[in-house]
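Reply to dn_fold:

You asked what the input looked like. This is it:
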Amino acid sequence: MNFTVNMKNIRKNCFHFILAGTFCCQSIVFGSFADDESQARTLEIPVSTTGLEQALDTIKGYSADSSKVERQLEEKYYSLSNPEELRKIHRYLTSEPHPAGSKRTKEIVDYMAKSWKENGLDDVIIHRYDALISEPVHVKVEMVAPYRYVPSLKEAPYPEDPDTNNSDLRGAWLAFSASGKVTAPVIYANSGNPADYDHLREKGIDPRGKIVVVRYSDPYSYRGFKALTAEREGVAAMIIYSDPAEDGYKKGKVFPEGPWGPESHLQRGSIAYDFIVPGDPLTPGLPSVLDTKRIPIEEAISIPKVIAVPMSYKDIKPILEKLGGPKAPESWQGGLPITYNLGGSEVILHMDVKMKEHIKPHYVVEGRIYGSDYPDEWIVMGNHHDAWGFGGVDPVSGTSSMMEMTRNFGQMKKDGWRPKRSLVFCSWDGEEFTLTGSTEWGEEFAEELKKKVVAYINVDSAVAGPNLKVEAVGSLAPMIVELTKNIRDPNGDSLYTAWRRSTEHELDSAEDIPQDANTGEISDDALINTRIGSGSDHTVFLNFLGRPVIEMYLDGDYGVYHSIYDNHYWMNKIGDPGFKYHKMMVQLWGTIALRLANSDILPLDFETYTASIQKFLTEIKSIDSLPENLDLTELMENAQEMQKEAQKLNRQIRYSLDQGQLDSSVISSVNEKLMQFELNWLNPEGIPGRPWFKHTLYAPRYTYAAMILPGITEAAEQKDWETARTQADIVAQMIAKNIQLIQAATKVLQQNSVPNQ
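and this is what came back:
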């Protein structure tokens, strides 16, 4: 039995090694090592049968004994995942289109509830929310000058993939588009961001009353922001099209031979302003249940007032190639074999869009496995089940992963296991419209969720390729990095190694890459993005409820987003043949849940969190005129003080777990304080102008991108320095509150850690 041990990255209390080969019933004993935070100890760690990089120390938040039990449990969990089961689930869920409000959606809801009951989950509940939905009656576009041309507004079927010929498929439409008829000249405005309209005006082109063509492009901006910008600019209507430079043949082979979008693919979606207030537009801030009073639709601030239609690059080409006017800037030139011009009066379009807004039931499926020790501490996992079409990647890769995860946990429960904390599984409805199901559920049970949710783990589109992407609050980042060393990537490496490799490749051209002071390589800080925006179901948990969140997915070459080609054929033949990456996501998702559920002391790292806050404060100094108008020195000093207190708490937690036999009441007291930390960042008044968003460190921009320290940032960008200073004072008060909280948790541990005799 030959193997190689490569010792590297030796740090305090942390050894890593890579084992190459296969092992059975082996162990390695490491004797007597110590540092200033713990006495010498001997650890006997079973060698993993996976041959992966192992952490030869206790797991974060666990004692040595608990770590051994947890590793064995995780090995059991890994062994249960079955790629063939995942493929079968995926095929069933993608067999028909299932947008929110459809008959097929309810069939999927019933299937999930039935499966979870058969899996042995303790409680399975279907929640119903009657929320506003937007559906097309008819969508028509016609070019009337310089000649007549009628775009198909449909996607072509392919014989290789019979699903693309499904009679229930809808053509081009955007949810919450306004209804109306308009005939007007056409102009081209690149990505449809405010700066793009400024350029048009510089060229003497007035966008008011025009039909504007914009594209899904880099830098990406949410289609709802394009709609809001168009509305503010006074345009008559908007067309959003998919350019081959972004997701088509300029990227590589297209469907059905490759992952990129074919010429007729188009991106459906919602243009609702859920960056102002998500959820049912008629019940802002309240759950859309029977006794909730609804506002008139005219008062709903999240509903756009502009006509909008999506198009494929096949449909838009005859329109764009006839545009006259000034030549568009080089950065606006796309992938079509034409010269992109800004337009003027040469091309006239007629658009006729009729939408139907009405209330329909939305269904949230909730399942639970109750914890043995702390049943009122919840680890919540979520994914949405509604799709614009078949949803091969978005969301069924995530839904099928969740179904396999619950099957595995159910089997472990049948074998006599229970987690220490409760696991709560949620399948959301209406995510694609206004983040509906998760928002309504969060609003209905807000007070209970604020008290009981340890963390929310969201997996929307689980698998679009091989490259792991993670967004998380800083307190959860170290735990995630640690556990990826025990999961195998399908290429044979540990997930940690594969993750580092793909991140290094992505950051090759970036500046200011976080580096490890000892190795010169990128640091683990670069792996997880702690700048969290919106666009998926984690939004209500972080921004409204103040709970720690994780958003993760596997990224790759994926050019069929929200099209009919995002289906089982794409996934089975192109995206993840063999469903190996689905299996890895099941393992990753479940392991995070297990680490949180079974820890002695919750693995929340506030030292990492406060490091993120200091970075945020440094970054906002670059806002124009901020340094001259807002002194952040004291705020930065307060954040540094909080980090020092967090370092003390981390050391005390490790010491207490290593040395003491902590009473359950002590553990409960400490964990209660740790769970309060995220909640302390909520401002009940919300951020100015968007009171639904209550987190003082995080909010989305209108593009869905992350906005850090949003109250300060938005005010500073608007040169409203009085509001900026007020918001800075609020953040300072919250830092002070969390310093006291951290000190209190440290004190409880100091007073109750009893060394082993």
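The radius of gyration is 26 Å.
Hope that clears it up.
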